[in-house]
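User: Study the shape:
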Amino acid sequence: MRARRGRNNGEGDSGSTWMTTYSDLVTLLMCFFVLLFSFSEIDARKFQAIIRSFQGSMGILDGGKTIDQDQFINQAMESNKLFREQDEAQSMERLYQQLDEYIKNNNLEATVVLAMEERGLLIRFNDQVLFDSGKAQIKLEAERILDDIGAILNQNQKFIRVEGHTDNVPIHTVFYPSNWELSTARAVNVVKFFIEKAGITPGRLSAAGYSEYHPIADNYTSENRQKNRRVDVVILKASYAMAEPYY
């Protein structure tokens, strides 16, 4: 009789231990998922949906509805994407403010333009700031400007695209048989300066020459042709950087 009572007591203790372990496991799982969501921005309705999923699926709390695994993952991914986009927008805005302050402090408003575009932050240089007419060698007085701007750009790790543009006036020289060679050489020389003088990592940079085929004004007047002769430096958003063919 004594042995039988001992076996019965042992079975009761085993059942109690199993329930305690299960409860601890469920509690830890709940804390884990709540912690994951604390790292992203979620609204009250999503948080309540998570709590209801535990109520309905874990068997610990009464009532409630469940959210399936795919919905849970999609909500987490959407929240994470939104956080990255907001972080990138803030980073671009800080960079814009730094560059705008530099341009104003150095009285460059007439020749260097800033603009926030869909693909990123644009720094547009009138060609006369950087080059003599028909040439691609960076002027000595322009090196300080590019060096200062390069130092600002080097404070982050965003990808940078340098684009050369010309007007539609043909050029025929030994070095530049057409505007294609001139626009490309200007973009490449700016890239090389950023690498060799400003210390920007080469993998962040790319160069392109567009000749006369991406004008921002018609070429009917000398003033408009001057607008088209330019070098654009674009600090790319992550989505556009990843779309580049060399990535």
